[in-house]
Amino acid sequence: MGGGTAVEWLAPSSLEEALALRAERGGDTTVVAGGSFLAILMNQGFVAPTSLLSLGKVQELRGIDVVDGELRLGAMVSHRAVERDPVIRRDWPVLSRAFGLVASPRVRNQATVGGVLADADYASDPPAVLCAVNARAVLRSPRGVRQVAIDELILGFYETCIAEDELLTEVRVPAALGPAVYRKFRSRSSEDRPCVAVAAARSAGRLRVVVGACAEVPQHYPDVCAEGADGPIDDAVAREIGAVYAKRMAPLSDSRGSAEYRRRVVAVEVRRAVEMVGADGAGNGAGREGAGGEE
Ligand SMILES: Cc1cc2nc3c(=O)[nH]c(=O)nc-3n(C[C@H](O)[C@H](O)[C@H](O)COP(=O)(O)OP(=O)(O)OC[C@H]3O[C@@H](n4cnc5c(N)ncnc54)[C@H](O)[C@@H]3O)c2cc1C
After folding, report:
1. Ligand 1 — pocket residues by CB below 6 A?
2. CATH topology identical between 8-54 and 180-288
3. For the chain, is the Cβ count within 10 Å smaller at the N or the C terminus?
4. Residue 202 CA, ligand 1 centroid: distance in Å
């Protein structure tokens, strides 16, 4: 066996202990949730932590609860659990669908709700949909607790506002009051990350369309969405919203598509998403439907 340096493994079994260790050790230890993202960074030599703080034994972070109509997902809930939970499937089907479109069952069994937000990868599926349904992340430290919207949490490529003494402990999702869809456009294999991700949610007086995987952070334009906030959305309105999103956005280029290709896909996918949530007028309950297309 080679003589590599031993990595310290901290495995608290309660949230209190985990928070204390995180505060005490700060940036000297690296949090591990499912480990699916971190393992790749470590195997490729991008990071070489000397200490790991595993959340795997913290049962308090594994809850799926509904409190006063709001969904509360513990940070260690797996993607697979979000996909399969009967209450989420019934009342927040767009979340089951979006988490169920991530990679393969093997990855979804490992990857967690907290991990996918904390790694802030621009090409992940869940951030756009969580942003569209107005979810908030709960960040805790011994100093206290704060809740931040998804677009306040994710600041840039692999960058969040989580402080060195904080853990992301929960994600809270308001009651679904209208239709919501998630459309994942893949340009390579069926298990790939999205080339363009579009999430749209509509409730009385409000339309929110969020585009993921095209820029550093999920993109949404409330002024453009205002056009489709009330009343039935006709084809012309949906087309116009798609066109303005495509025009205003400055998409990135990567191995999944050039900026110009993405711009064209955004126009089409945003239009389709708006048509889907708009078909139900002001959104009277079709939130239960949660359909969403793929490429
Ligand atoms: C083969 C493969 C295919 C993939 N395809 C897709 C895809 O199609 N769509 C998609 O969206 N994603 C995809 N992913 C990404 C996968 O979903 C992420 O790797 C996963 O979301 C990270 O979750 P994790 O629990 O494993 O996090 P980890 O790897 O454990 O951690 C990720 C980062 O977040 C930090 N962290 C984790 N939890 C917390 C917390 N509670 N508080 C503070 N910091 C924390 C860690 O320190 C680390 O920096 C794919 C991954 C793989 C390996």
Report:
1. 30-38, 40, 55, 75, 102-103, 107, 110-112, 114-116, 118-119, 124-126, 162, 167-168, 193
2. no
3. N
4. 28
Question: Tokens standing for 162?
Answer: 């989580």
User: Model-level pTM?
Assistant: 0.94
- Ligand 1, atom nearest to 31 Cα: 47
**CATH assignment, 180-288:** 3.30.390.50
The domain over range 59-173 is classified in CATH as 3.30.465.10: yes
User: At the topology level of CATH, where does 8-54 sit?
Assistant: 3.30.43
Reported in sequence order, the residue ranges of the chain that DSSP labels E, i.e. its strands, are 8-10, 30-32, 51-54, 64-67, 70-74, 136-141, 144-149, 154-156, 159-160, 167-173, 180-185, 196-203, 206-212
Q: Which of 116, 138, 158, 190 to mutate to test the pocket of ligand 1 (most atoms within 8 A of CB)?
A: 116
> Average pLDDT, stretch 116-124?
98
Q: In what order do the strands lie in the sheet with 180-185?
A: 180-185, 196-203, 206-212
Q: Which residue has the higher pLDDT, 232 or 117?
A: 117
- How much is the CA Rg of the chain, to the nearest whole Å? 19
The arithmetic mean of pLDDT across residues 93-111, rounded, is 97
Q: What is the pLDDT of residue 283?
A: 35
Q: Where are the domains of the chain?
A: 8-54, 59-173, 180-288
The arithmetic mean of pLDDT across residues 120-131, rounded, is: 98
Structure tokens that stand for 133 in this block: 């349904």
pLDDT at residue 232, as a whole number:
82
